[in-house]
Amino acid sequence: MSEIRESVHGQWSSRWAFILAATGSAVGLGNIWKFPYITGENGGGAFVLVYLVCIAIIGIPIMMAEIMLGRRGRQSPMNTMRTLALEAGAPGHWAWLGWMGVLAGFLILSYYSVIAGWALAYIFRTAVGTFDGQTADGVAHIFQRFLADPEGLLFWHTLFMVMTMLVVARGVRGGLEKAVKFMMPGLFIILLILLGYALSTDGFARGVSFLFKPDFNALLFKLGEDGSKVWNPGPVLTALRHAFFTLSLGMGAIMVYGSYLPAGTSIARTTFFIAGADTLVALLAGMVIFPIVFANGLEPSAGPGLLFQSLPLAFGHMPWGAFFGTLFFILLTFAAWSSSISLIEPAVTWLVENHGMDRLKASVIMGIACWAFGLLTVFSFNVWSDVRLLPMFDTFKDKSIFDLLDYLTANIMLPLGGLLIALFAGWVMRTEASCDELELGDGLAYKLWLALVRFVTPIAVIVVFLHAIEIIKVG
Ligand code: TRP
């Protein structure tokens, strides 16, 4: 019974603390950096619509499932999965799901920290006026020079990793909760200020129509080699995978946060709030970035550099640009920071539970390991940009180390984790247990949730895999 289990790591002080922390985990680089550039690469409006549908019918039910499992198990994802599996009369091997999650979180943090380091670096660049009066080419050039310098990237990556581990080491209430309480409201306010600026540019109408006007032709088809239209599932699957990433699902981060949730909190309501806030921030970021992109004749499909090449341009030209720019990158750093702590929290809880370490030692060990692994990403933007780890696979032969890590985690490990979580919550766990923990009653709401995790999510994710298998041909 959930009432008698307690987490050894403590509890959030209130429902709101949990909401802020989980929103802090969800809202991150995925919303402000990744969402705009993948929307740009995938043609805009129709992609956004599919993304919203994925959040609603896949993201929300899985988030509810993860929180529910976490709160019932009250331990690190491995131990939670083992306990709950045994409780349901299933094999303890379900603990492997926790292991995969910890590995995914570790790999994601190793590159996440490098990108967050870009945000850190840009705080100082905007503050000293590097972008004042720059042209689009000038800003792009500054960005490329920045990536080409391994020592610089290494410095910022190191700093960000230290910041992350400082919070994690201080624990649930003293670290995680304190940090998110001031970061999240601040982020929201600065986004609104920037929206005001985007409204004043002459690209606003085009930016908004790019984001919200669906062109399904461009989404579903591409031109074949002979010029005929061929069906292209790529963008739809990208939207589905991003739903996992942006909501922090599929690796146990939300599960671990759920394990600190006080009993008697409505899981459904908190989930709606978190998913809603996450979506709102992503859409706001799009409404800030695309008008600037169009007003300055930039390409929306510029890829991972989009944010770092569009916004500095705006800051270089708007009144008080250095001020707002500095503020923006501070808040982007906050958003990344409140996410990065959730990426490593499951691993730290496991070291504490199973190896009897104190939190400080566990954080230091994990931080150093993850930092070292992050060097692969640092160098993949410069000295190792030509290195290919899996050249024998068609899908991977053009991917740098960073692209490969991103692909393996976001496209394979998270959906796989999400699939297993849905199967466990829907089929393995007894319905009396899930019904009791979700506190939805046994009416329509609960049945809808059960149908989604039992059928819709597994089928959708299996389609992603069939597609991945189809394109992972040995070349
Ligand atoms: N959701 C975060 C973002 O959008 C990233 C993140 C944090 C994450 N924790 C996670 C992604 C766990 C997947 C799993 O930037």
Strand content: under 5%
Total number of distinct structural domains? 1
Content-based structural category: mainly alpha
- The top-level CATH class is Mainly Alpha
Number of strand elements: 2
Could you give the order of the helices and strands? HHHHHHHHHHEEHHHHHHHHH
Attribute tags:
binds tryptophan; Hydantoin permease; 2 strands; 1% strand; 475 residues; 19 helices
Description:
It is a single chain. The chain has 475 residues and is mainly α. It has a single domain (15-470), classed as Hydantoin permease. It is 75% helix and 1% strand. It contains 19 helices and two strands. A two-stranded antiparallel ribbon has the order 1-2. Strand 1 (221-223) and strand 2 form a beta hairpin. Residues 25-26, 28-31, 105, 108, 245-246, 248, 251, 253, 339, 342-343, 414 line the site of tryptophan.
What's the layout of helices and strands?
Layout (H helix, E strand, L loop, with lengths): L14 H12 L2 H13 L3 H29 L3 H11 L7 H33 L8 H12 L2 H20 L2 H29 L3 H9 L3 H5 E3 L5 E3 L2 H13 L6 H6 L8 H29 L10 H12 L3 H35 L3 H22 L20 H28 L2 H8 L5 H28 L4
Helix pairs in contact: 1-8, 1-13, 1-15, 2-11, 2-13, 3-4, 3-9, 3-11, 3-13, 3-17, 3-19, 4-5, 5-7, 5-14, 5-15, 5-16, 5-17, 6-14, 7-8, 7-15, 7-16, 8-13, 8-15, 9-13, 11-17, 14-15, 15-16, 17-19
Bound molecules: tryptophan.
